[in-house]
Amino acid sequence: MTAGKFVRSCNFAQIRAYRKLISTGSPFEKTAGFSRAVVHGDWCFVSGTTGYDYTTMKMPYTIEEQTHNCMKTIKKILNEAGFDLKDVVRARYCLKNQSDVKTVFPILGQYFGEIRPSATMIICELVEPEMKVEIDVTAKK
What we know:
The protein has one domain (about 35-140): CATH 3.30.1330.40. The protein has helices spanning about 10-15, 25-30, 65-80, 100-110, and strands at about 20, 35-40, 45-50, 90-95, 120-125, 135-140. The chain contains four helices and six strands. The chain is α+β, with helices and mostly antiparallel strands and about 140 residues long.
């Protein structure tokens, strides 16, 4: 038997029918060529979200404000996509400074305390110097 007999044809129109792109209207999304979230069937994949206030396009100074802004944006995007925070099954937190971990944990607990998704925290550089936190999540209905 040849490998070709096992390959199934792909109907891209059907794939697009199950896929919905969500945007905040941020110029970063257009410039970098990504969506804030992609819904595919029962799944919602929310891209890395920083602490910008997307109405003013300003970054607050404190890690607390940035973390709350991340979560508010994520919650808004999930709701727009037909999901809720309770649907989140995985979260990834990227912090610029390890010293912020103890400050951020209780804030994340306010949003995810009862939901308890699988989670990973990474200490790393972020795209812009003023960014202190970036969060991405995956949700499943």
